[in-house]
Amino acid sequence: MNTQRSEILEEIERRRLGVSLGLLRVYNYYRAMVGLALLIVFTQTFIASRLGTLHPDWFLAVTLAYTIINLISAISVQFLPARFFNTQYPAFALVSFDILVLAWLMYLSGGVASGIGVLILVAIATGSIIVTGAIANLLPALATIAVLYEEFYLSLSAPNLHDDYFQAGVLGTLYFAISLAIQSLSKRIRQNDIRSLTQAAELADLERVNRQIVQRMRTGILLIDQDNQVRMTNQSARGLLGQNQDNSISLLPQPLVEHLNAWRVNNHLRIAPFQIRPDTPEIKVAFAPVRADDPHSDVTIFIEDTGEVQQQAQQLKLAALGRLSASIAHEIRNPLGAISHAAQLLRESTNLDKGDARLTTIIHDHCQRMNDVIENVLEMSRRQQPSPTKLILSDYMNEFIAGLAASLPDAIVEVTVDPKDTEVRMDTRQLGQVLTNLVSNGIRYSREAGHDGKVLLEGGVDSRTDRPYLNVIDFGPGVPESQVGNLFEPFFTTEHTGTGLGLYISRELCEANQARLNYYHHEAGGSCFRITFTHPDRITG
Q1: Is 532 within 8 Å of 515 (Cβ atoms)?
Q2: How far apart are CA 521 and CA 4, in angstroms?
Q3: Average pLDDT of the chain, as a whole number
Q4: Which of 238, 302, 337, 539 is the most buried (most CB within 10 A)?
Q5: 354-379, pLDDT tens digit by residue?
Q6: For residue 193, what are the contacts with CB-CB under 8 A and spacing of at least 6?
Q7: In which element (H, E) is residue 540 found?
C-alpha cells in the first residue's frame, strides 16, 4: 500500500510539474505583454496616467529592459528541457524578479496610487500556483516588504508626494490573502487528485484481480451478444471448446449455438451434457442474461467440465460395485471353484474317451474365464482412491517400456514425446495398468495383421485444449464402425478368450483421474486409443 501511495504521489508530482511548466510558459508571454503595455501607456499622450511621474527617464529604461528580458525569457522557456524546471527555484526566482521590478516601477511612478500594485497581485497569484510548499509563503511576504519599503523610501526621497502606508498595508494583506487562498485551493485539488488516483489504482487492481480470476478459474465463461458474437472468453472456455489457447474465439461452435438458440426460446430449458467434438471433454452449460429485464441483452455462458461429476459418480459406482462383488465372491466363486476342481479330477480319470476329455477341457477353460471376470470385478471393487502425481511423460514412458520388455521381449514399442518436458498428472500405478492393457491389446492385434507386434506411443500437448495426451497406436485391422459405440461397455469383447472388461476398466481408471480415453481410427488403418490427461497444474479431487 505504501508503494502504491508513493507511486501515486510521484504521478501527482509529475502532473503538477507538467501543469506548472505549461502555466510558466503562459506566464512568460503575459510578462512580455505587461512590459509592452507599460511602454505603450507610458509613451501615449491620449490618456493621462501616473506611470513614470517621479522619474520618467528611469521608468522608460527599466520598463524597456524589463520587456526585453521578458521576451528573451518567453523564448528561452520554449527551448529549455523540461528537467530544468523539475525544481521550483526557477519559477520562484522569476516571480520574485517580477515583484521587485514592479515595486521599483511603482516607486518611479509615485507609489501605490499608480495602480502597479495590481500587477504584483497577478504575479503572486501565479506564483502561488506554480510554487508549492513553505517557499510559496515567501512571495507575498517579499511583495509586502517591497511595497512598504517603496512607500518608506518614497517618503524620504520625495517628501512633497503624499505617501500612503494604509493602501500599502491593504495591498500586503491582499497579497497574503490571495496567496493563502490559492495555496489552499491547490492543496485541496491535489488531495482530490490523490484520492481519485488512489481510487483509480484500486479499481485497476481490482479489475486485474477479477480478470485473473476469470481467466484462471476452472469454469469456462463466454460473454455473447444478441448476434451470438463472442465478446469475452477465458482460458478454460477455450480449452473446453477445443480452441487454441493462443487464439480468441470469434464464433461459437455450432452445437453450442443450437443450445443457445433453444435457451433463448425457453429460458427454463435444462441442457444435457454434451461434447463439442469427439476429442473435447463432455461439458455442461448454463446461460444467464446480463440484464434480466432486457431480453436482447448480452448472455453469459458458464461451461463446466463434467469430469469431476463423473469422478464422484465413479466413486459411488465403485462403492456399490464393491458391495456387489462381495456377494459375487461368496455366491459364485466357491461353486465355480468346485466345478473347476471336479472337471480337473474328471479329466484325470482313465475311463474317459477323447470326446469326454475334450468336454472337461471346455468346462475348465470357461471356469477359468469366469474366474478372470470375477478377479477383474473384485479388483475394481478393491481399488483405492487415485493419488495423482505430476510426471514427466517421457521419463515415465522410458520406465514403462523397460518394464514391458521383461514380459514382452519380442514387442516393438516406439515412443515419441514432443515436447520432451510434457507433464501429466495421474496415479502412476493406475496409468501403468491402463498402458499395459492398451499396449498388450495393440501388440496382439498388430501381430494378427502381420506387423510383428509393433505399437507406437505418441505423446504431446494439444494446442487447442492445452492438455497433454498420449496416443497408443497399433497396426491391426482396426475396430469395425458398428462396434465402436460398444467398445468401452463392460463384458463386450470380440475375443472368445477375453472378459470384455479390459477397456472398460481402463476408461474407468482414466475417469477416476479426470482423464479421458477415446478411440479413433488411425490413418494407417489400425487403431488409436488416446488418453487425454487433465491439466498438470489442476489438482484432481
Answers
A1: yes
A2: 58
A3: 80
A4: 238
A5: 777 777 877 877 777 677 666 666 66
A6: 12, 15
A7: none
Residue among 165, 149, 146, 145 nearest 157 (CA): 149
Q: Please name which of 238, 523, 455 lies closest in space to residue 256, comparing C-alpha atoms.
A: 238
- Chunked in runs of 10, what are the mean pLDDT values of the chain (541 residues)? 58 62 78 87 78 86 90 82 71 88 88 85 85 83 89 81 78 89 81 73 77 75 84 80 66 84 85 80 85 81 77 65 65 75 75 75 76 65 74 91 78 88 90 88 83 86 86 86 80 65 84 87 83 77 46
Within 10 angstroms of residue 83's Cβ, the number of other Cβ atoms is 8
Alpha-carbon radius of gyration of the chain: 46
- Do the beta carbons of residue 238 and residue 245 sit within 8 Å? yes
Per-residue model confidence (pLDDT) at position 311? 61
Helices and strands per DSSP (H, E), number in the chain: 15, 11
Residue whose C-alpha cell reads 509613451 in the numeric block: 43
CA distance 175 to 136: 12
- Contact predicate 283/276, CB 8 Å: yes
Which segments of 163-224 does DSSP mark as H helices, in order? 165-216
Q: Give the up-direction half-sphere exposure of residue 254: CA atoms within 13 A in the CB hemisphere.
A: 1
Other residues' Cβ atoms within 10 Å of the Cβ of residue 71? 17
Q: At what angle do helices 138-157 and 117-130 cross, to 10 degrees?
A: 160
The three three-digit cell numbers of residue 169, written as one number:
498595508
- Cα–Cα dist 495/493, whole Å: 5
C-alpha cell at 416: 515419441
Between CA 263 and CA 289 the distance in angstroms is 11
How far apart CA 186 and CA 127 sit, in angstroms, is 12
Q: Are 99 and 55 in contact (CB under 8 A)?
A: no
pLDDT per position as a tens digit, 33-47: 888 888 888 887 777
pLDDT digits (tens, 9 = 90+) for 210-250: 777 777 777 888 888 888 888 888 877 877 777 765 556 66
Cα gap 465→518, rounded to integer Å: 15
Q: Are the beta carbons of 305 and 515 closer than 8 angstroms?
A: no
The answer to whether the pTM exceeds 0.85 is no
Distance CA 382, CA 63 (A): 105
- Residue 46 contacts by C-beta under 8 Å, 6 or more apart in sequence? none
370/334 Cα distance (integer angstroms): 12
5-24: b (≥16 Cβ within 10 Å) or e:
eeebeeebeeebbeebbeeb
